[in-house]
Amino acid sequence: MASTSSPQYPALNKSTAPESVMLLKSTPRTGIVHIGLGNFHRAHLAFYTAIAVRDFGGDWGIYSYSLRSTVIADAMTSQDLLYCIATISPTSEAIVIPGIHTAAIGGPDHVGQVLAEIAKDSTKIISLTVTEAGYLISQSTNGLNMQAPEIIHDLEHPESPRSAIGIIVRGLELRAADHGLPVTVLSCDNLSGNGDRTKQLVFEFIDSLPDSTRLRTYVNEHVTFPNSMVDRIVPGTENRHIDMVESRLGIHDNSPVPAEEFTMWVIEDRFAAGRPAWEKVGAIFSDDVAAYELMKLRLLNGTHSLLSYLGALAGQETIPGARFQPYIEDAVRTILYKEFLPTFAMPAALTADGYINQLFDRWSNTVLGDRTSRVGSDGSTKLPQRITEPVIFHAQSGNTPQFIALTVAAWLACIAPLKGFYPGADADAMKDPAKSHLVQLAGLTTDPAVFVQSVFATAQIFSPELGALTNFVECVAGYLQQIIYEGIEKAALTAKSRS
Ligand code: CS2
């Protein structure tokens, strides 16, 4: 790991830590195996679990695994499995150090260890934060993408799965063959009905295995998949965060997590083998998770997508930069109130205005500086979750949601610009698993209408049902044309005038 002259974590203990630092170090044994060791996990599930274990005990240490990269795992291993969550807002800065991990490993070479850990009878929860893209959902079948190279590989190589679903199934297979004890699979990603969805994908994988009766029965009878809504804005780690920790604590953290103060977790209480006392440290257990999920996926995430693409095209590097452009703020209010809010029922405990005002505050966090390129990445797997049902909802009464159409057009302008159009550096920095395919389609024509038609008809990003909504598809094409020839502000003003 990076060598450094400043002291490392072991030098820090309760008496040396500054007052504003919360050191949550306990030494439980492993009870949770987590797949997807990114910043989101480290600032959310790990945070709640560290507090719950410190205050209420239990063997809920987290054995964590990153599917591809070894960077975070190596950084954490080199610093006693500790790291800082730096909570940053314009009015405060605080540091929390959640000492709850029992291992941090990364990369396909180590997947055997993860399977062995899942198989242990001491493992009670398998949790996941692998992003929308990590579930390998096919939009054409609305199920597991059996053509994905990872799934093809995983069906053929039981000992070395590479996909999250493959790892879960192979781990469950070992449990079924060994002791058959119950376990919970807990998805913490932004998918609508994330638990139900994960269960569906797990069963589709199982059904493709030869001789799967025993495993099917085990999963049916002893494995639960609670739905959950998980919320905290967590940007990527930058050097300025490393410097901030160093100047505050005098220690060098190779991998701190910047985060907003706000955090929310709503979970269904369906745990097959127990769980940490999360309800005592702020998590909400509810039978109404679906309402919270829809609220968050549409109001926060859906609008976040609009902010990222309009913002990037307007030359804004950050979400607050975008949010403070008057015409983008106007677009945000319209999409929230006119296009997303009518499509679901708010959870009984919250009011729309209260939640939306809080969103504006969260998007205004200029010092956290969440980037448009982070939020805009992976649009091909995020947008279908966020916009499909709202578009269909409006189409049923003969309407086309203008700002949702503009969001899709702006995404295409950012990810696969047509010849002669340059979307700017922030759009350039967006990654997307469908990027190379979209760029290929964009290279076949200079006509935005032809390009947009081909995306909906052939790219298998959006469902056939959405692609069949001609008015919507044409509206997207019209906005792409306007973005290219007149600019994003003009396109947003048009959308406003039609709303
Ligand atoms: C964002 C989310 O990446 C995105 O598209 O909308 O990561 C968002 O920051 C989180 O869901 C907040 O909980």
Quick rundown:
This protein is 48% helix and 12% strand. The chain is built from 22 helices and 15 strands. It is globular and about 60 Å long.
What does this structure look like?
The protein is an alpha/beta fold. It has two domains: 30-285, NAD(P)-binding Rossmann-like Domain (Rossmann fold, 3-Layer(aba) Sandwich); 289-498, Orthogonal Bundle (N-(1-d-carboxylethyl)-l-norvaline Dehydrogenase, domain 2). Helix content is 48%, strand content 12%. The protein contains 22 helices and 15 strands. The chain has helices spanning 39-43, 45-56, 71-78, 111-119, 149-156, 164-178, 194-207, 213-222, 239-249, 289-313, 319-323, 326-340, 352-363, 372-376, 379-395, 402-415, 425-428, 435-442, 448-458, 464-467, 470-486, 488-498, and strands at residues 21-25, 30-35, 61-66, 85-88, 93-99, 101-106, 125-128, 137-138, 143-144, 183-187, 223-224, 228-231, 257-259, 264-267, 284-285. The strands form four sheets. A six-stranded parallel beta sheet has the order 6-3-2-7-10-11, sandwiched between helices. A hairpin with a 4-residue loop joins strand 4 and strand 5. Helix 6 crosses helix 8 (213-222) and helix 21 packs antiparallel against helix 22 (488-498). The longest helix is centred in the middle third of the chain and has 25 residues, at 289-313. The model has no long low-confidence stretch (mean pLDDT 94). D-mannonic acid is lined by residues 190, 231-233, 301, 304, 375, 382. Keywords: NAD, Oxidoreductase. It holds the Pfam family Mannitol_dh.
